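Q: Here's a chain of 286 amino acids. Please give me its 3D structure as C-alpha cells.
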Amino acid sequence: MVPETWQQVQGAAAPMLHLLDGFLDAGRVTRGVADHLLRTCHPERLATFDVDAVHDYRSRRPVMTFDTYRWVAIQPPVIAIDRLTDATGRAFLLMHGQEPDSQWERMIQATLTICSEVGAGRLYTVTGIPLAVPHTRPTGITRHATDEALVHDNPPLIERMDVPGQWSALLQLRAGEAGRVAMGYVAHVPHYLSQVFFPQSVKAVLQAFMDDTGLVIPLTGLDDEIAESLSLINSEVAGSPETGELVSALEDAFDTAHERLAPVPTADEIAAEFEKFLQEREQDQP
C-alpha cells in the first residue's frame, strides 16, 4: 500500500477496472485496454499484491535476460492496483497483472476489502469472445452486470452456458453477493482474428466504459493502431480467395441480421466458436 496515493482516492468513489491476463481474451482485448490505460493515464501505485503466494512459476515462467556471461534482468509477474487520471483530471483505479493461479477466494476478499477501505465505486472489466462476425463492420459489445437494469439494451446472445471460470468473473460474482455493483463489457471479435491483437475492439470497449462512467480516456495512438491492423488484415484477405469468401459471407450475414434488428448468431454457433477458441488456446500453451 502507498499511503500518499491511498489518501488521494479515499472516499472519492473512484470506479475500478480489473483487467488481469487470464484464460479467455480473444483479440487480446483485456491486455490491450490495460496497456493503453497504463500508457496514457499517468499511473500511480496504490497497492501491490504478494504475487509469490499466488503465481505458478512453472506454468508461466517470467522472461529473464542473459547478457554475454551473466543474468542481468527479469520481468517478474505483478498484480497491482494503480490510481489513474483521465483527461479531465478525474481519478479511477486499475487492477492489472496476471490472473492468480491459486487462492482465488482470498485474492477476491483482499480486493473487495481494499475497495471498501478506499471507498471505490463500481467495478468494471472487459474481455473479448470469438464470434462469426467480419472485421469490416463495427465491433459489437455485450454488457454483463450484477444489476439487470444496466444490461437492458443487450442483444439476446444466449440464455445459459457453462464455461471455464475466470478470476475477474468470480470477482464480479462475489461483488454482487456482497451488494456491490459490478459490470463488464464483452467485445465481439471476429473468430478468425481471435488469436491476434484486434485494436478495433479495444476502442469499442473503451467507448462503452466512457459512456457509462463519464470518464474521458485519451485515445491517443489507437486510430493509428487500428489503421495499421486493418491494412495488414485486408492484405492477408486479398491474398487468400478462401478467406475473402469467408469475410464476404460474414458481411452478408451481418448486414442481413442488422436489417432485421437482430444482429446475433445462434447459441449453437456461439458454442461452436467458443469451443474452437478454447482448443486453439490449449494448443498454444507451452
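Q: Can you summarize the key feature?
A: Residues 60 and 122 are 31 Å apart (CA to CA).
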